[in-house]
Every structure is written in structure tokens, then in C-alpha cells.
């Protein structure tokens, strides 16, 4: 029927060293995106960005961020995202780039995609596991991934496995 | 046009309507400054218009290609050519350009046409 429609962009923040990733917070990411859009698309872009833009979800452990844009102009604002080179937060500059994984019409579809994507990443990590207990952990994490009432479990479990992967 | 028509009358009236008639649009603009005696060179004028596009449409707008075909320094009248898709962006940034080196200014758009020849005849004067 008559509904206000938005587009949710699922982006991944890639940094060179993962310890800096934990410093991210949603206001810093929002400010960076607005500044980039203002630089690339000028006053017109900044005005489009101010209507219904927000950072809906940010996971500092995995670097996943959900951005919401209005449906009319999401492609224009999307085109400014590759020009982001660093995110400034609390006086520190984290050099990074944003990788867009999925565009969805609602948060729920983005979440479903994210869970499928995370299970694929875990499947890819399984052959790389060096010892038996890591394999057990990864397999348990894969079995746990599902869209139930406890949605956040999927995200947290994925982050543990990824951190284990880094420690190797 | 049926074959029967063609055989009867050699010259048939045809009306051709072109939607996107020309790839370029031509604008005749005049810059009006607060201080009447300031003069700009052609390069300075183009740079000024590019800064206007930059402030309203950002880097992408400033990359819009337009040409300054003719420029009269004494009356500050210029003939601009822009791709038809960029006409709205250029015209709106000319409208919102307000100050040149701390003095108030305005761009008066005198004529716009997709055909250069149409700019020679002005029914307003």
C-alpha cells in the first residue's frame, strides 16, 4: 500500500589492522558518509543525505554496517561510498574502505543475507583450521546460525571464530 | 504512408517530431556585478562557473563539461554550450551563484536553445 520505502545497504568496513576496528562507532561512520557525500555531490547531495539517512547497525568486531537511504536517491549516495578513505573517531584516523555486500528493502532481508553470508564465511574457514578444537568451534558456530528469537547470537558467534582465525 | 498515396501525389506532407533534438544546449548569459567596472577574462569566467557547479553539485558537478564558445568582455556576455543532460545542473548552479570576490553578482540567462542558429534571432528585443 502506501508506505515510506528505504533501501538498506549492507557494507563491510575493511581495515588493514583489525585492532583499530574496535574504535568505530555509528556517529563517526555517519559523519564520514555525510562528509563524503557533501564532497562528491555538493549541497544537493548533502541535502538528499539529511532526509532519511542513518546508520542502523554497526558491529565493531566484524566491521559490518547497515546504512539506510531513501529509495529515490540511494544510487546517487551509494556512488559516494567508494571515495571514503578514512574514518575519523575520537581524534584517531582509521584508514579503511567500504565494501557494499547487499542492498535490501528492509532490515529483515539484510539480516537474512548476513546470516547466509556468515555461514558461507565459516564454511570457508573450516578447511583452514589448524587444530581439532578450532574445528569444533567453527562447526558449532555454523549449526548455531539461524534466524530465531536470539538473532544477535549469529553475529557474536561469528566474531569469536573470526578472532580465533586471526590469532593463528 | 500507403503505397496508393505515394503513387497519386509525389510530395506528401510529413510531420517529424524530434524528442531529443540536439545533443547540446546553448545558453546566452550575461553576468551582472555590483561594481560595474570589474572585468573578467574568459578563463576567469569559466573558473567562476566551475566553482559554482562545485558548491552546488560537488566534484561530480564540477566535472560537467561545458564550453565557453563566445565571450564579450565589455558587456560580460557569454555563449555557453553544455550537453543536454547537464543543462539543468548548469542552469541551476548559475542561478544560485551569488558572489564573486566578495561582491554581489547575478547571472542573467538571456536565451536558451538546443540549436545555435536559434540564438541569432531574439523576439524579445
TrEMBL record, chain A:
Its annotated function is as follows: Component of ribonuclease P, a protein complex that generates mature tRNA molecules by cleaving their 5'-ends.
**Ranges that cross the membrane:** none
What keywords are assigned to this protein?
Answer: Nucleus, rRNA processing, tRNA processing
**A single GO cellular-component term on record:** ribonuclease P complex
Q: Major location, coarse class?
A: nucleus
Question: What name does the UniProt record give this protein?
Answer: Ribonuclease P/MRP protein subunit POP5
Show the GO MF annotations: ribonuclease P RNA binding
Family to which this protein belongs: Belongs to the eukaryotic/archaeal RNase P protein component 2 family.
Q: Which Gene3D superfamilies match?
A: Ribonuclease P, Pop5 subunit (3.30.70.3250)
Q: Where located?
A: Nucleus, Nucleolus
Its GO biological process annotations read: rRNA processing; tRNA 5'-leader removal
InterPro entries to which the protein is assigned, alphabetical: Pop5/Rpp14/Rnp2-like, RNase_P/MRP_POP5, Rnp2-like_sf
TrEMBL record, chain B:
Q: Which InterPro entries match?
A: Pop5/Rpp14/Rnp2-like, Rnp2-like_sf
Q: Which UniProt keywords apply?
A: tRNA processing
What name is this protein filed under? Ribonuclease P/MRP 14 subunit
Organism annotation: Sander lucioperca (Pike-perch)
The alphabetized list of GO BP terms reads: tRNA 5'-leader removal
Q: What cellular component terms from Gene Ontology apply here?
A: multimeric ribonuclease P complex; nucleolus
The molecular function terms in GO held by this entry are: ribonuclease P RNA binding
User: Record's family?
Assistant: Belongs to the eukaryotic/archaeal RNase P protein component 2 family.
Please verify whether the record's keywords include Protein biosynthesis.
Answer: no
